[in-house]
Structures are given as structure tokens and as C-alpha cells.
């Protein structure tokens, strides 16, 4: 186990030195600044005209969900972009041999690197999520319904994306890894919105297509569950809302995501063990 923790620490430090991580942090700060300005302008607009406090609260809650959705997208993209070169790049350049020749099992290298990125991703999600919620509370006094459940599901979503980049990194180069990982995330994104669109079209075929997409890559379904947990019941009941409770991922869907994560990591470890370095 010492080998795993050593690799996790080294991986975390290496990731912290990469410019893309600091760029992601700057993007997060920029997101919070724009979000704060948008909320403040909306508050000023409300104050300039008479509006029911109830309606105002629902609108502000909707704006908070938009901010959290942007935070979620940024976290997933950051997870993919910062991790695609970890195994793929080191294998292609041969630098992985300097680690593989040490008395550390290959599965420990794989697990340690994944654990290091897990710590980084979790910290990033908590920072951006907490910042978004704090800004919303400071400007409007609005908070999400179940923030702990929401942030946990977003972290889970990022770990799924991370596991996919690690698996692909044992087989493909950095560029191919990035294209495939982002492509799969695109499939998940489209599947999630197809299920939302079904609330307007009432088409069973669109729902089925969305479910199949979620089975291929279940990341977006975790966000939709997070949105369901965090938004107000009224906002979720409105079918025209982009976060409407049209198709709520169930407990079996969450369990499938957990099994998906375990299988991807297991296959990735097996592939890394047999890969010619």
C-alpha cells in the first residue's frame, strides 16, 4: 500500500505543476465572477419592478442551477484534459519505464495515479461548487436543496470520466485518448438532453435512445440526479425547465454507474499490467 500512496503523492504534485490545472482554476474564478455579476444584475432588475417573492425565489434558484451546471461541465472537461496524458503520454515517451523498473507493482502504479487525480478532482469540484453556492447565497440568499448530495454526485461523475481516460490511456496515445474521452462525454451529454426533450415530444423512442446513451457513458445521468436533488420541487416539476424531472435516474441507475466505474478500472488495470512498456 505504501507504493500506492507514494504514486498518488507524486501524481498529485505533477498535476499541480501543469499549466492546464492552473488554467482550469483561472477559468473557475472567471466563472464565479461572471456568475456573481449576472446574479447581481438580476437582483437589481427585480428591485426595479414589483415581483412576488415566491416567483423571485424560483427564478434565482433556476439561475443557481445554471451556475452549478456550468461548474459541472467545467469540472468534467478539466478532469479529462488534465488526465489524458498521464498514462498515454508517459507510455509513449518511455518515462513510465523509470517507474515500472522500481519495486512497485504495475497495479499499484495505476491505482496510485488514479488516487492522486481523485484527490485533485475532488478538491477542484468542492472549490468550484462551494464558490458557486457561496456567491448565490451572498447575492440572493438562495441555496440548493441538498448540496452535499449534489457535490457527491458531481465528484462521482468526474471519477467516471477519469476512469475512462485511464482505461483509454493504457491503449491509445494522448490525442486519441482525448478525442475518445471527449467523444464519449458528448454521447452522454446528448443522451441526457434527449431524455429531457422527451418531456416535450412524449416520444418513447427518444427516451430509449437517451437511456442507451446513458448506459454507454453514465456521466450525464449522475448530473441529472444531482440536479434533481438540488433544485426546488416546483422547478423540477416544470416540464419546460432545462433541469426538469422528466427522467430521473433511479437507484439502479446509480448502482449501474458504480458497477461501470469498477469494471472500467479493473479492465484498465488488467490492460496496464499486460501492456508492453
**Largest beta-sheet characterization:** none
| Mean pLDDT, all residues | 82
Give the % helix: over 70%
The low-confidence runs, each spanning 5 or more residues with pLDDT under 50, are none
Q: What's the total helix number?
A: 12
Task: Output the radius of gyration.
Answer: 20 Å
From the spread of the alpha carbons, the general shape counts as globular
Beta-strand fraction estimate: under 5%
Oligomer: single chain
Number of strands: 0
Structural description of this entry:
This protein is an all-alpha fold and 277 residues long. The chain has one domain. Helix content is 82%, strand content 0%. The protein has twelve helices and no strands. The chain has helices at 2-16, 19-47, 53-83, 86-93, 96-100, 106-140, 147-169, 174-201, 204-216, 219-230, 233-237, 251-274. Helix 7 (147-169) crosses helix 8 (174-201) and helix 7 (147-169) runs parallel beside helix 12 (251-274). The chain is globular. The chain starts with a helix and ends with a helix. The model has no long low-confidence stretch (mean pLDDT 82).
Describe this structure in a few short sentences.
This protein has 277 residues and is mostly helical.
Salient structural properties:
277 residues; 12 helices; globular
What order do the helices and strands come in, and which of them pair?
Layout: H1 2-16, H2 19-47, H3 53-83, H4 86-93, H5 96-100, H6 106-140, H7 147-169, H8 174-201, H9 204-216, H10 219-230, H11 233-237, H12 251-274
Helix pairs in contact: 1-6, 2-3, 2-6, 3-6, 3-7, 6-7, 6-12, 7-8, 7-10, 7-12, 8-9, 8-10
Amino acid at each position: 500500500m505504501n507504493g500506492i500512496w507514494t504514486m498518488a503523492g507524486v501524481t498529485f504534485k505533477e498535476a499541480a505543476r501543469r499549466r492546464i490545472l492552473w488554467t482550469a482554476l483561472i477559468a473557475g474564478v472567471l466563472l464565479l465572477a461572471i456568475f456573481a455579476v449576472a446574479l447581481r444584475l438580476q437582483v437589481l432588475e427585480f428591485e426595479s419592478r414589483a415581483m412576488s417573492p415566491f416567483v423571485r425565489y424560483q427564478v434565482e434558484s433556476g439561475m443557481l442551477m445554471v451556475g452549478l451546471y456550468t461548474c459541472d461541465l467545467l469540472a468534467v472537461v478539466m478532469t479529462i484534459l488534465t488526465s489524458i496524458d498521464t498514462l498515454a503520454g508517459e507510455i509513449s515517451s518511455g518515462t513510465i519505464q523509470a517507474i515500472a523498473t522500481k519495486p512497485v507493482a504495475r497495479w499499484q502504479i495505476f491505482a496510485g495515479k488514479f488516487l492522486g487525480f481523485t484527490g485533485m478532482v475532488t478538491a477542484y469540484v468542492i472549490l468550484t461548487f462551494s464558490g458557486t453556492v457561496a456567491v448565490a447565497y451572498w447575492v440572493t440568499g438562495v441555496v440548493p436543496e441538498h448540496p452535499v448530495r449534489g457535490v457527491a454526485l458531481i465528484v462521482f461523475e468526474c471519477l467516471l470520466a477519469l476512469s475512462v481516460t485511464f482505461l483509454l490511456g493504457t491503449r491509445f496515445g494522448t490525442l486519441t485518448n482525448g478525442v475518445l474521452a471527449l467523444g464519449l462525454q458528448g454521447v452522454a451529454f446528448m443522451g441526457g438532453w434527449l431524455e429531457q426533450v422527451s418531456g416535450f415530444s412524449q416520444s418513447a423512442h427518444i427516451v430509449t435512445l437517451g437511456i442507451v446513451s446513458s448506459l454507454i457513458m453514465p456521466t450525464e445521468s449522475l448530473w441529472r440526479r444531482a440536479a434533481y436533488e438540488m433544485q426546488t420541487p416546483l422547478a423540477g416539476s416544470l416540464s419546460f425547465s432545462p433541469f426538469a424531472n422528466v427522467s430521473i435516474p433511479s437507484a439502479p441507475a446509480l448502482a449501474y454507474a458504480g458497477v461501470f466505474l469498477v469494471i472500467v478500472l479493473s479492465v484498465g488495470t488488467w490492460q496496464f499490467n499486460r501492456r508492453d512498456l
